[in-house]
Amino acid sequence: MDALINFGSGIFGGAWPAVWTLLKIVLIVAPLMLSVAYLTWAERKVIGYMQVRIGPNRVGPWGLIQPIADGLKLLLKEIIVPSGANKGIFIIAPMLAIAPALAAWAVIPFNENLVVANIDASLLYIMAITSMGVYGIILSGWASNSKYAFLGAMRSSAQMVSYEIAMGFSLICVLMISNSLNLVEIVQGQNTGRFADMGLGVLSWNWLPLLPMFIVYLISGTAELNRAPFDLAEGESEIVAGFHVEYSGMAFALFFLAEYANMILVAALTSLLFLGGWLSPVGFLPDGILWLFAKMAFVLFLFLWFRATFPRYRYDQLMRLGWKVFLPICMIWLVVVGLWMLSPLNIWK
Amino acid sequence: MDFQTAVFFFLSAILIFAAMRVITARNPVHAALHLILAFFTCGGIWALLQAEFLAIAIILVYVGAVMVLFLFVVMMLDINLDRMRQGFWNYLPLGAVLGVLMVMEMGLVLGSKYFQVPAADAMVPAGVSNTKEIGALMFSEYVYPFELASIILLVGMIAAIVLTYRGPKKSKNTNPNQQVFVQAKDRIRVLQMPVEKD
Questions:
Q1: ipTM entry
Q2: How far apart are CA A302 and CA A116, in angstroms?
Q3: pLDDT tens digits, B77-98
Q4: Of A50, B5, B89, B107, whose CB has the highest number of CB atoms within 10 Å?
Q5: Which residue is closest to A157 within chain B, CA to CA?
Q6: Co-location of B147 and B76 in the same domain
Q7: Residue B92: inside a domain, yes or no?
Q8: Does a structural domain hold residue B71?
């Protein structure tokens, strides 16, 4: 690594830090986009098998080239701007959807050292950046000048604002017990305690002491992503495709990319905050980045499983779940964790 | 001009442009969008001042939550711009007085801070967590103003609900609790009856 840095600074001189940062960005975004492509393939395959079908199987062996073919098709299609649309915002909206989905990856650590920007308040940064993803949806709905798109945008903005609160509260519990906003420190904090010393790290991760918050985070994460069973913003059977009904070609593909990149992001966050990140579940196996990927794959599989299992929520049920169930649970558990930390039973010293 | 100064001027230019567009844009949605841009660049300038917590907080609170609701409302309104522009000259004197007052206040606040404290003293040493420092101050030295502000916000919230509440509506809402726990025997009655013969 040092040899590479020396070599690079020899060639580029003063511009090397910028080049190095760009290289790191490419190293994250390119595999991310590839994972997005194969996540769509995995989704179709997994849901296919759950519904006793075989899913995509024509393009390449086991349909493995299907996502590439889909991407090419979308790339070559014409982007139609409706005549009544607000053209500038119509074009900007998909960019606003995908930019936060990519920008949030800047602070995601893959192990102690493998992170683009190890900033002090990385958890806050992620919350701030991901909360901006909703603009892509609202603006696309408004700029399309279409009833269905507008309804989808309205539903989605109310839903995302509601579930952000429950999500924020569950994150507050995590940062209370880890006493840090830095994701690297949050993961390292999960490696301490009685169970970790016994070699059973899996029991010292945050998911166990914060089990209610883990569940709240997972469910509100699904809602934030507008994934089934909370996909009212799309709601094919009611409002056709919701906010992106007027989009075609690559503009539509950008919304798609943003949704799946966000799915991978929430999976990564769940793994880092509650499932111990790159830590190994048992003492005799080494820690490593592969554990993080395995945990992310598990959470992603959960999202696909949800989609194949649950029917869509009705709108009032969705709001009730967010405001009347999750919010009180979060507030109570926040007080419980606070008292727990003050009591002699505190396990996070 | 070093890199930081260049970034500062770049962000300031965007901030001033966006703030101007907020009041000059004809379309209210465009105005709201420029306000979002203004908040975002403001966060960038605060980050330059090494106030990373404040920078992230303004984006989290204003861009992520307040402006979403704002945009929500603005989109629903059917604003007639020509009617709004009719009283411009009548309102100008009052508006000018308010504007001058605001500029004076801002000048006093900024002047008292900036002309006495040299910029170098405000540098944050490495390893100091912005968030921790603000939290510690907020809950020790400024705990009463902080609590007071939150109570005022709570009162405002309740007042808004009370002002717009028009009494209980007779609605056909279903109770999800009962729906979830409903069982087949509550809805279906299986009858035993003899087979009819002609």
A1: 0.79
A2: 28
A3: 766 666 666 777 788 888 899 9
A4: A50
A5: B68
A6: no
A7: no
A8: yes
